[in-house]
Amino acid sequence: TGTPLTRSFELVAPGPETRITAMRLVNAHTEAVLDWDMHTGEKYDLGGLGIPPANLTAQVFWTGATPESVVFEVDGVQVRVENVQPFTLWGDFGGNTFLGPELGFTYGTHTIAATPYSGVDATGTAGGALSVT
Question: Which residues pair with 126 in a beta bridge?
Fold first, then answer.
């Protein structure tokens, strides 16, 4: 007879992964929501709305545990780590969203990506990201 083979294992319950589930487009100058749930491929006629591209910002929503920070990227470049709710692309003060930097958005196609983290300043565990083009 041979020696029995023994294997040990542990089953763990999945944690409540934090995932960015929606991104809304906001006119930071007026706080008006232009799109409550942005999707890839959408086009916005800013000229028809009388809004310069630099006035645009985005705010994210999530499922799971509340993130401690969210990293925002625009066109593949990290532009902000937001540590305070509401998590907005260019930040806010007292709920009033900031306008983009002088060289923020221009007319054309852009990609915004947001990744939540369990710790401040993009530390801890990264959750599920959302990217909208």
Answer: 117
Cα(2)–Cα(25) distance, rounded to whole angstroms? 67
- Integer-rounded Cα Rg, in Å, for the chain is 20
Each residue's pLDDT tens digit, 1-21: 678 877 777 766 555 589 999
Q: What span, in angstroms and rounded, lies between the C-alpha atoms of 133 and 127?
A: 20
Measured CA to CA, the distance from residue 65 to residue 45 in angstroms comes to 35
For residues 5 and 97, give the distance between their C-alpha atoms in angstroms, rounded to a whole number: 62
SS3 helix, strand, coil % of the chain, rounded to 5? 10, 40, 50
Q: If phi over 0 gives left and psi between -120 and 50 gives alpha, with beta otherwise, what is residue 30?
A: alpha
Side-by-side strand order, sheet with 19-27: 32-35, 19-27, 56-63
- How far is residue 84's CA from residue 96's CA, in Å, rounded to a whole number? 13
Q: How far apart are the first and last CA of the chain?
A: 64
